[in-house]
Amino acid sequence: MMNYGFQFSLKGFLLYALQLLPNIIWMLMPPANNVLTENSSVYKILNIIEGMFGVLTVILMIVLINKGEGSNSNLYIGLAIMFLAAYYIS
């Protein structure tokens, strides 16, 4: 059984920063015609859910740490890299 605890993970923070890199670039160099200014759902609940999942992503990547040794960690890192590459491509 895996043993999880709460503490800060620098590796998780760096991975989260890589995920946010396109958003950071967009914020620093916004386009002249920003099509995302009106990009919110007409249903308030969907905006709330999106915000909650954003916070959960930060918590799971940065402060929830596996204190045990897992045999699947290389598989998970590989999948994370693959999904991040797909995110950048899309």
Assign the structural class, choosing from mainly alpha, mainly beta, alpha/beta, alpha+beta, or little secondary structure: mainly alpha
Mean pLDDT, as a whole number? 79
List how many beta strands DSSP finds. 2
Which bin fits the share of residues in helices?
Answer: 55-70%
Rg (CA only)? 16 Å
Using the alpha-carbon principal axes, give the shape: globular
Strand order of the largest sheet: 1-2
Reading the helices and strands in chain order gives EHHEH
Uncertain regions spanning at least 5 consecutive residues? none
Number of helices: 3
Strand content: 5-15%
Main sheet overview: 2 strands, antiparallel
Q: Cα distance, first to last residue?
A: 36 Å
Overview of this protein structure:
With 90 residues, the chain is mainly alpha-helical. It contains three helices and two strands, in the order βααβα. It has helices at residues 10-28, 44-63, 73-89, and strands spanning 4-6, 64-66. α1 (10-28) packs across α2 (44-63).
Can you tag this structure with a few keywords?
single chain; 90 residues; mainly alpha; two-stranded antiparallel sheet; globular
Topology overview:
Elements: E1 4-6, H1 10-28, H2 44-63, E2 64-66, H3 73-89
Antiparallel strand pairs: 1-2
Helix pairs in contact: 1-2
Describe the structure concisely:
With 90 residues, the protein is mostly helical.
